[in-house]
Amino acid sequence: MKFQNLLIKGRLIKRYKRFFTDVKLGKEIVTAHCPNTGSMKGLLDEGNEVFISKNDNPKRKLKYTLEIIKVKKNLVGVNTHFANKIAYHGLSNNLVKEVTNNDSIKPEVFFDKETRFDFLVEKNKQKIFIEVKNVTLFRDEKIAEFPDAITSRGSKHLKTLITAIKKGYKSYLLFLVQIQGVESFKIAADIDKEYYENYLLAKKAGVIFLAYRCKISSKEIKIEKKIKIVNA
Which pTM value belongs to this model? Predict the structure, then answer.
């Protein structure tokens, strides 16, 4: 996924009210939209280098959007709106090795009245649901983690993926690691014990878990390589 405009480098001042981020650009301070409603644990230290995009649409209240934060020499993609675009590009270009040469890829497909998954893929008459989770947490420089806060919605998705298997679908959960340089991934059981327990149940039921790291630059973000899930 390529950025439409050249990103602008600045320094983080603070994030507040979930959707606002103050950024220092030279001597100027601008307010950028924060397209990430999560905790962003470990990313929000004042002075961190950031990259923001600019949109000149006169209807927009905020012209700038926070896209990337640099932490511990690692670039981290924080725009959660891009996660499915990155995943779609990866699926379309056979970058996710477990799901290649697909006959069709449909985004945002309802499984039941309450739940829709990010993708329904069809391959050789097999229907495959793929749920994508954006990953931005790393407390160790080489290990990415999910979740960064308690996620009841995440647990619900795991349970529904199990139900999908029982109804004949193949089920994948793709942890999209938007953290440059990490080498492995794990479930943050200390942050959300219930999610970890549901992860183990889903794995036993046949849900296939994948972690893929992204290549991140100020020009584009795309899937780069598979990394090991260490508490698999």
Answer: 0.95
**Cβ-proximal residues to 213 (8 Å cutoff; 6+ apart), any chain:** 144, 177, 179, 180, 182, 223, 224, 225, 226, 227
Q: Is 51 in the same domain as 110? A: no
In the sheet that holds 104-110, the strands lie side by side as 104-110, 116-123, 126-135, 170-177, 208-216, 221-226
Cβ–Cβ < 8 Å for 205, 162:
yes
Let me know whether 124 and 211 are in one domain.
yes
In a domain, 1, yes or no: no
Crossing angle (nearest 10°) for helices 152-166 and 193-205: 10
**Is the Cβ–Cβ distance between 74 and 179 less than 8 Å?**
yes
The single-letter DSSP state of residue 58 is T
Answer yes or no: is pLDDT of 57 > 90.
Answer: no
In the block, which residue shows the tokens 């100027």? 28
Instruction: Tell me the pLDDT band of 84, cut-offs 50, 70 and 90.
Output: very high
